[in-house]
Amino acid sequence: MPSSPLHAPVLDWYAENARDLPWRSPGTTAWGVLVSEMMLQQTPVSRVEPVYRAWLERWPTPAALAREPAGEAVRAWGRLGYPRRALRLHALATQVVARHDGRLPTSYAGLRALPGIGDYTAAAVASFAHGARHVVLDTNVRRVLARAVGGSEQPAPTLTAAERVRAEALLPDEPAAAARWAVAVMELGALVCTARTPRCGGCPVAARCAWRLAGAPAYEGPVRRVQPFAGTDRQVRGLLMAVLRDRDPADGPVGADALAAVWPDPVQRDRALATLLADGLLIEHAATYRLP
Predict the structure, then answer these.
(1) 233-290: which CATH architecture?
(2) pTM value > 0.90
(3) Which helix (H) or strand (E) holds 165?
(4) Catalytic annotation, pick one of 37, 153, 163, 187
(5) Which residue has the higher pLDDT, 228 or 93?
(6) 7-130: which CATH number, 3.40.50.720, 3.40.50.300, 1.10.340.30, 1.10.1740.10?
(7) Residue 220 designated active-site
(8) Interval 118-152: pLDDT, tens
(9) What is the dihedral sign for C-alpha 199, 203, 206, 208?
(10) Which of 57-61, 149-153, 284-288 has the lowest mean pLDDT?
(11) Fold of the domain built from segment(s) 139-213
């Protein structure tokens, strides 16, 4: 495709403004990129970075993680939230050892076939770790393209076919340039073209932005629902998990009384506990509980 007028200003901006993040360091392995992508789902960089560093120091390869119980992955996940991601990483590492001799597949298709890996993650790892040409559409990228090209303040709540076509049309032909474009647009969305308070004065494509040229109209499409946290089963799950996660494994399993102390409503507490057991995040034996 011919070079887009957006390419040069965005790439130049990225060269000057990209954050120094550990998963972008030279020599980062595909495993390191994959771990970062799993941790960064719905979780801010500031919370991810220390956990990421500790994780890669302890488990620098899939084989290192696969050698330990899944519960250790859950424990190391700490307070990042959505701890099923830790179980998925452990299951993935185990399969990589069993079926791929401990080495992550390099292709999108091979990555996509791993448990817990969706389109976005497979494309991101293939692009950022191997310099392959793929459309990488996270929330930040979708928002930048919705504004700069589509003229809308926000993208639709769920990814549309039209968005993918638009992103594909903007992707540079040369794979290395496409990979750099993907991370540059992502960074622009994270730092400048933010959801609530975009810093248009510092945007390298403000003069070409379709949304600004249209007068920055307010978004009128369907709204993505933001789930509350306080008082929800999700909060109770987190409190229950913290009891197990913070306990020294040498002290043995946790009794029901210790879990009962974290939340006063027994109906909600038991419901949250049942979902943790169903998700495989806790194991029950003789009215005691432990990590898997």
Answers:
(1) Orthogonal Bundle (1.10)
(2) yes
(3) helix 161-170
(4) 37
(5) 93
(6) 1.10.340.30
(7) no
(8) 999 999 999 999 999 999 999 999 999 999 999 99
(9) negative
(10) 284-288
(11) Endonuclease Iii, domain 2 (1.10.1670)
